[in-house]
Structure formats: structure tokens, C-alpha cells
Amino acid sequence: MKRKVREYDENEFSKADLKIILLGDSAVGKSKLVERFLLDDYEERQQSTYALTMYRHNAKFEGKTYKIDLWDTAGQECFQTLHASYYYGAHACILCFDVTRKITYTNLKKWYEEMRQNCPTIPCLLVANKIDLDPSVTETKFKFAESNNLPIYYTSSADGTNVVKVFQEALKAAIEHKQKPGGQFMDDLMDYLQG
């Protein structure tokens, strides 16, 4: 019996135009945000993402189609730091915390510092997730966002609040970062020369 071999489209594994990384503690809802954005669907589950999940998404922005890789990691506390390759070539970061768990907010500092060590100039968006569980939090001003000059988005992957908006803003910021003179190329060159 002859086995059918799946044929791959050469673009399926081609290099992405943009790379957007997601950071934050385990169970803050990073994977659910990506699922809601890509599938406009939500399924309750307690299982954590292990190691790394990469999603490929094609998005149109100002008449041009971009291949975007969305990198999602476990964020589990046992991974004290992420390997530098996770950050390499990133054009934007979505930094997430769970509004119902204070420790995830406290740990933003660690995630942000590590991200800045590896990606000193990429744009970063702060996401206060799970607002469906505590809608009053949208009235809160978070000092971390103000002190690091980060735009903050109040989201819920459960009901979809602001999920598409945050990914659209991350895409726009990533494109602008990549296109600015001396942007990612200079960052990569300096990393290479220093390494």
C-alpha cells in the first residue's frame, strides 16, 4: 500500500515578516489570548503551555500582507529566564498579567527586565487580562505601565474584550519598529558584535 505524502507549500515554512512575543507568568491567559485572536473562539482549560508554541498568522495592514509569527511560552516559574533565542529577532512584545492574581503583576518587573536585556528597543504593550472576572479593575491605574511608559490594554479572552485590538496594535507597533531607520537591523548587528 502506497502512503500518501503530504505536500508542503514553500511559503508554509518561510521566514516571517514579523515576530511578536508574549511574556508573563503561567496561567495569565497568553495562549487563550492568541487562540481568541486567531480563532475568535474560547475553550476553558487549565493545562499550561509547555516550552514554546509558535503560531503563524497572515495579517493585512495598510494594503500589505504580513506573515507574523506569534511566540508563546509557558511562563512557568521553573523557567527563571528564557533562552536568548526566544527573544532573537522579535519586533514587538505583549506582556501579560492576570488581574485576579497579584503575583503575576509583581513578576512583570522580572519579565520586562529580561525582555529589555535581550530586546532593548522593541515596543512593548501591557495586557491586564481576565477583566471579565473583575470588571472594576478597568478603573485602576497601574503604576508599572506608567513608570515604564507602556500602553495598557484591559482584555478578556473569555468574552473577547479588546483582544483583536491589542494584536492589531502590536502588529502596527512591530511594523513601525521594523521600518524605522536603524531599527531591528542595528539591534541585531550590535548583538552580533557584542556576542
TrEMBL record:
PANTHER family: PTHR47978. The lineage of its organism: Eukaryota, Sar, Alveolata, Ciliophora, Intramacronucleata. GO terms for biological process: intracellular protein transport. It comes from the Eukaryota. PROSITE patterns: RAB (PS51419), RHO (PS51420). NCBIfam families: small_GTP. This is Chromosome undetermined scaffold_33, whole genome shotgun sequence. One of its GO terms (cellular component) is endomembrane system.
